Amino acid sequence: MQASAGGISSTGLLSGLLEWFGNLGIFSWRVLKAAVTPPFEGRELIRQMDDIGSKSLPLVALAGGAVGAVLSMEVRSSMTRFGATSLLPSAVVYSVIQEMGPIITGLVVSGRVGAGIGAELASMKVTEQIDAMEVSAVNPYRLLAATRIVACILMLPLLTVGADACGLFTGWLAQTLVEPLSLRQFIESGFRGATLADYLPPTFKTAVFGLIIGLVACYQGMRTRGGAEGVGRAATNSVVLASLFVILADVVLVKMILVIFP
Amino acid sequence: MATAYDTAMKQDGPKQGEAALAIAVESVQKTFGNLKVLNGVSLGVHRGETLAVLGRSGTGKSVLLRMIVGLERPDSGSISILGQDIAGFSLDKLGEVRKRMGFLFQHAALYDSLTVGENVAFPLVHHRTDLSKAERGERVNQLLTEVGLENALDKMPSDISGGMQKRAGLARALALEPEILLLDEPTAGLDPISSGEIDELVLKLQREHQMASIVVTHDLHSAKTIANRLALLDQGKVVIEGSFEDLQQSDIGFVKEFLKLS
Q1: Counting one residue from A and one from B, how many pairs have CB atoms under 8 Å apart?
Q2: How many domains are there within chain A?
Q3: How confident is the model over B9-50, as pLDDT tens digits?
Q4: Predicted confidence (pLDDT) per residue in A44-64, tens digit
Q5: Angle at which helices A206-222 and A115-126 pack, to 10 degrees?
């Protein structure tokens, strides 16, 4: 009986998963179609870029800064053991720009923006505001979803640059408090021998994180059912799924970057 | 038994009747899961005519209205709006038909992040790009005056009463000067005085704009006041259709019981 129940449960889980991804595919297609056909919602896009971008910057900068400082302290501790403290600036710069800045930005934005979009659209859905929009002959996939997703795609790389800058600054600060070194020396030493191929792909990969965050949050929000409980569930699921997919996508993207830019 | 659709068709003969029908619902069926909500409903409404759809809660009245506006698709049967069969229409194509329709939701469904004035202006902003900002403002003021909300322009939906929200919703529904007006429970949840005011308002608008209207309600008094014809729904079917007097003279048990308890 237990095995049978387990079997049914596994089948149910699998079909639920397939249904979720299938509906996500249909949703993505509708958004894509709406995004590339007129009328274009430029004003709403700018509003969303401000909301997603500038309002996330303080949080992203703070998180980037904290990671930079911690990284610098940890790396110093390890490098001292091997007598390689001169490599510390490079280690901090590479770590922050290639991985820590992008992933921290992705996760922080998943939390702040994912929850915000998920809850806002879910609330609009359960109070029939999205239906009212449709009835007013305004395509909600264009006005609500496409603008938010595109804003996420455009703003994530910019926010990553902000997180990187703060991470490098606090990394230097943590270094210079122990062993005085000018910021210029730290940067020059850290970037020595590096090419744009070392830094641009990791920064621009966050556009994919933006796509994931925007898409998952809009999808979760616009498919909500069931009142206040549904709104809460949509917000939670948006954050959890967006964070999870960002981490999984990071693994794939890092591998792709290493293959394309060896 | 003659349905509303049959009656509407008989008035001018099949060919002329078909052309004159602003809304033609024919043999529509809709099932949610195992629950058959509509089971072969046929209705027809001419321009300048108001049909009230009555029935107990859960008999599919609102579902019928949502199908007419394209928010739900019928499992079988056809729905023609202003001569166009909307089955299979894409969202954008449906939008063109929806511009000629106004819809008042049961809970008004005002955009809670916009003021009352911005709510009313919403369809104008998106579809009347030929209007200047001043002309749009003038039109919004005119609509709000028409529904008696001239002082609520800058108020948020949460700051006005349920009756005022319905009025604001009505003003928004009228913004694009629709040829069809659909009202979902316009007096539900309102006190008798506010209900009477809404009824008066709907009657006045009907006289002035000569739209084809469907009013879904379980308020017999309201239906009697604002509609030319009434259709009573039970178990997914139209049980009877005609004037209030026709309903009073009916021998059908359900009709007698409905009238007695209303």
Answers
A1: 57
A2: 1
A3: 555 444 444 446 899 999 999 999 889 999 999 999 998 899
A4: 999 999 999 999 999 999 999
A5: 20
Q: What is the DSSP string of chain A?
A: -HHHHHHHHHHHHHHHHHHHHHHHHHHHHHHHHHHHSSSP-HHHHHHHHIIIIITTHHHHHHHHHHHHHHHHHHHHHHHHHHT-GGGHHHHHHHHIIIIIHHHHHHHHHIIIIIHHHHHHHHHHHHTTHHHHHHHTT--HIIIIIIHHHHHHHHHHHHHHHHHHHHHHHHHHHHHHHHS---HHHHHHHHHTT--HHHHHHHHHTHHHHHHHHHHHHHHHHHT--SHHHHHHHHHHHHHHHHHHHHHHHHHHHHHHHHHH--
Of A30, A129, A139, the CB nearest to B95: A139
Q: List average pLDDT for each run of 10 residues in chain B, which is 262 residues long.
A: 52 49 93 91 92 89 93 93 89 90 94 96 94 94 91 95 92 93 88 84 85 90 90 91 89 85 75
Task: Confirm whether A128 is domain-assigned.
Answer: yes
The alpha carbon of residue A135 is apart from the nearest alpha carbon of chain B, in Å, by 6
Q: What is the DSSP letter of B90?
A: -
- Test the A interface: residue of B111, B112, B170 with most A CBs within 10 Å: B111
Determine the residue type at B194.
Answer: S
Instruction: Give this prediction's pTM.
Output: 0.87
The answer to whether residue A6 sits within a structural domain is: no
Buried b vs exposed e over A35-49: b needs ≥16 C-beta within 10 Å?
beeeeebeebbeebb
Write the ipTM.
0.87
| Domain, as residue range, for A57 | 42-260
The overall average pLDDT reported for chain B is: 88
Q: Is residue A32 part of a domain?
A: no
Residue A82 domain-assigned?
yes
pLDDT tens for residues A96-111?
999 999 999 999 999 9
| Contact (Cβ atoms closer than 8 angstroms) between residue B226 and residue B199 | yes
